[in-house]
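Bumping with the actual sequence this time:
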Amino acid sequence: MDEMDVPDPELGMATIVFETPDGETDQFTVENEYIIYFQDHWQVKAGEDDDGNDVVRRIPKEKVFYVERSVEEFQDRIDALLDRAKDRFDLDNLNLG
């Protein structure tokens, strides 16, 4: 199965504020594409290792105070994803009856 080619408009930045293991408050600010919520954890690109691989920090949802995102053209991205899904799965011609 080939990957879905999605336009990459400027989506803004995200800041996640969380409690560290020593009880302090810390935060990361990254591009929106580098933060996701998955399996009860926020996952954030925290940098790169010496080999150029991404380092991802998994933060349990219970430790996150908030995630704030600035987004531009977010609706455009959603619309593009929906249009691609419709085309890919031929949803316009789907007969459910």
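The tokens above came from a reply further down the thread. The first helix runs from residue 74 to 89.
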